[in-house]
Structures are given as structure tokens and as C-alpha cells.
Automatic annotation (TrEMBL):
GO terms for molecular function: DNA-binding transcription factor activity; sequence-specific DNA binding. Pfam families: HTH_18. It comes from Lacihabitans soyangensis. InterPro entries: Homeodomain-like_sf, HTH_AraC, HTH_AraC-typ_CS. Keywords: DNA-binding, Membrane, Transcription, Transcription regulation, Transmembrane, Transmembrane helix. The lineage of its organism: Bacteria, Pseudomonadati, Bacteroidota, Cytophagia, Cytophagales. PANTHER family: ARAC-FAMILY TRANSCRIPTIONAL REGULATOR. Residues 285-388 form the HTH araC/xylS-type domain. The chain crosses the membrane at residues 12-27, 39-59, 71-91, 112-130, 146-167, 188-209, 221-239. This is AraC family transcriptional regulator.
Length: 392
């Protein structure tokens, strides 16, 4: 196979090769761990290397030589309408353990399907129907038509906004469902979203600076930057093994006429604003569990654990805590953990057990989470608190 090695083609080849390798590794990991988010990320990585391929092969001389030029012309390497929804469904599966891909979700891939049908028809017409090359008579790759590039940019913006909404909902539900939410906020996933924003940003910048997308040689730095960003997303996703414990379906209201995101908005609104009947009674029952049952000592306590003990559903307990105490579930439980720790300090136990050891006994599962919760509750770091309270 012909390949002319140059500085540009060789540099993009490195990213291309590693992208293919990590695509395989992600599919393998997804199969072994049964984690479907890895399949979505593997697909994103594969589509990304396809996106870079025309420029890598172009700098390697394919556009100037037959039959390679026709491969680039008639194979739709740049799946601009497929990349954004694939990345969006990766986030969907990443944040929501109950997510199941449904038939109606295929609509997100309809624009990409139509574009591929368009390219197929062009290929059939030029190669088998017409006596001459008609659609590619101008020698320009259809993937770089301005209308298609601009439509791809709009698709990226749309799915970026949807992904940001997903993360906002995920954060809201996590802090209202888990007592260890600080360790499940997926800081690395937030960085993914920043990279997604960067992808949209550089695409906008290069689109404005170099609007002539058929001018092949002027786009190298854009594709090099894209390669760095998709490489970061792929490697970070592969190396991270954290799985969400949050299920969006546990918080959705039953309304078949609303989309899942609309249901989530309604559920959030009800949880925050709809008055809870017998609020004082539910508050008292929750407090009894926390004080007498010491459920806060469970480092993996979830709101469904409380709901099960009280024979109700999670949303009702969340309402009781949100409206009765003005706190989310995570902060509510950590408040009891901090209070229990302070009582241990007042009994002088800090002289016998390490400070972190006491925190773990009270239900905290990490030093960083404990430090943040303690300072949020007391306004002081643990060391400052001991010095001011016990060493003066």
C-alpha cells in the first residue's frame, strides 16, 4: 500500500495508530467488564481516527494517486453527524446505570444515515449508472463541502448542550442519593466535558479563520489539535474504572408523553418545590434512623437504604430532607458524621485513635471527603478545630 511519510503524515499516523489500538482495547474491556459505556467510547475513538484519516492519507499522497483518491472520495471517513451523538450516549451510559438504548434513540443517528445514503448514491451513480464521473468531476471530496462541515458543527454544539444537561442532572441526583457523592462526581468526566467544549471551540475558531474547507493543506493544525483532544478522551476513559451508582429512572415521574430529560426536570422540580404531606412526621422518622440507628456510620449509605427502612420511595425521603432541613442527602448525612466525630473528640478519643481513623468510624470513606465536609460544617479545618477547641 502506498504511503508517503512526511512530518505531517507521520505525526497524524501516530494518533491514528494509537486510536485504533485503544478502540480495540475499549471494546475488549467493555466485553470483559460488561460495561457498555466502554463500547460507546470505543466507537467514538474509532470514528475519531476515521475523521483524521483523510488528512493523514492526504499528506501521504493519496489524493494525488489512483486508486487511492477514489477511496478517499467514495468512503465517508468524516462522520460529522455520527461523532457527537456517540459521545453523548457515552455520557448517558456513564452517568446513568439504568440507561438502556431504545429504538427511538435511533433517531439521533438518522442524519448520519441519510448522509451515508447520499454518498452511496453518488458512488453508484459515478461508478455504475453514468458513463462519466459526474458528481466528482470537480475533484473535491464531499466530506469537505461547507454545508456538511457547518451541519457537523451545529450537531456538536447541540450534543454538547445535551451532555452538559446530563452532567448537571447527574450531579443533582448523586448528591441527593448518595452519602459518598464527593467520590462519585466523576471529576475526570467533568474534564471530558471541558474537552468536548474545547472540540467545539477549536472547530468554531478554525471554521471562522479558514472557511474554505476544500482547501486541503490549510487544516493541519486543526486536525493535530483534534487528535490530541480525542486521544486524551480515549485514554482517560480507558484508564478510569469508576462506575456510576446513580439511576435516573429512580427519580423519573411516569409520563409516557414526555422525554426522559423532561421527566427528570419535572422530578427535580417536584423534589424541590412540591410540598410534602406530613413533612414533620417524615423528618422525625428520618432523624430517628440517623440518631438511634446510626445509619450514617455506613460509608456506602444511599437514600434508597433509608427509603427501604421506612417503607417508602427515595423521592419522598429526598423531599423530606430537602424541604425539612434545607440540605441535600449527601450534606445531611455528613452533618451527622461530623457531629458524631465532634462527640468523639470531646470524649478525648482523638488521643487514642488517629483523626482519620475516627472519621472512618463515623462513616467517611476518604480523607479528602472528610476534610471538605468538616470545614463545610464547622467553618474550620480539623486541625484548626482541635487547636481552638481543645488546646487553648
Amino acid at each position: 500500500m502506498y504511503f508517503s511519510f512526511s512530518d505531517k503524515s507521520s505525526l497524524l499516523l501516530i494518533f491514528f495508530f494509537h486510536g485504533v489500538v485503544f478502540s480495540f482495547l475499549l471494546f475488549k474491556k467493555g466485553f470483559e467488564t460488561e460495561n457498555k459505556s466502554d463500547y460507546w467510547l470505543g466507537t467514538f475513538s474509532l470514528l475519531s481516527v476515521m475523521y483524521v484519516a483523510p488528512f493523514m492519507l492526504g499528506y501521504a499522497g493519496w489524493y494525488g494517486r489512483l486508486p487511492y483518491r477514489e477511496i478517499l472520495f467514495y468512503v465517508p471517513f468524516q462522520q460529522l453527524l455520527l461523532l457527537p451523538p456517540v459521545l453523548y450516549f457515552y455520557f448517558q451510559r456513564l452517568f446513568d446505570k439504568s440507561f438502556v438504548f431504545r429504538t427511538k434513540d435511533l433517531l439521533h443517528f438518522l442524519p448520519a444515515f441519510l448522509y451515508n445514503c447520499y454518498i452511496l448514491l453518488i458512488c453508484l451513480a459515478d461508478k455504475w449508472v453514468l458513463d462519466e464521473v459526474y458528481f466528482y468531476a470537480n475533484g473535491q471530496d464531499k466530506d469537505f463541502d461547507a454545508w456538511y462541515q457547518f451541519l457537523g458543527f451545529l450537531s456538536m454544539v447541540y450534543y454538547l448542550l445535551r451532555s452538559l444537561m446530563l452532567y448537571r442532572k447527574y450531579t443533582f441526583l448523586t448528591f441527593n442519593a448518595l452519602s459518598f457523592a464527593d467520590t462519585m462526581t466523576f471529576i475526570w468526566a467533568k474534564r471530558f466535558l471541558w474537552v468536548f467544549i474545547a472540540l467545539v471551540g477549536i472547530r468554531l475558531v478554525f471554521f471562522v479563520i479558514n472557511p474554505e474547507w476544500d482547501e486541503f493543506g490549510r487544516k493541519f493544525w486543526y486536525y493535530l489539535t483534534f487528535s490530541f483532544l480525542f486521544y486524551y478522551i480515549t485514554i482517560s476513559g480507558y484508564l478510569n474504572s469508576v462506575r456510576t451508582k446513580t439511576s435516573f429512572s429512580d427519580w423519573q415521574v411516569t409520563d409516557t408523553n414526555k422525554s426522559s430529560e423532561a421527566q427528570m426536570d419535572l422530578a427535580d422540580s417536584k423534589s424541590q418545590h412540591e410540598p410534602l404531606p406530613d413533612l414533620d412526621e417524615w423528618k422525625a422518622r428520618v432523624v430517628v434512623l440517623m440518631v438511634e440507628g446510626k445509619m450514617y456510620e455506613n460509608p456506602e449509605l444511599t437514600i434508597s437504604d433509608l427509603a427501604e427502612k421506612l417503607g417508602t420511595h427515595s423521592k419522598r425521603i429526598s423531599q423530606a430532607i430537602n424541604q425539612g432541613f434545607g440540605l441535600n442527602f449527601n450534606d445531611f448525612v455528613n452533618k451527622y458524621r461530623v457531629e458524631a466525630l465532634i462527640k468523639k473528640l470531646e470524649r478525648g478519643e482523638y488521643s487514642m485513635v488517629t483523626f482519620l481513623g475516627l472519621a472512618l468510624e463515623c462513616g467517611f470513606n476518604s480523607k479528602s471527603t472528610f476534610n471538605r465536609a468538616f470545614k463545610r460544617e464547622t467553618g474550620q479545618s480539623p486541625k484548626e478545630f482541635i487547636r481552638n477547641r481543645f488546646q487553648n
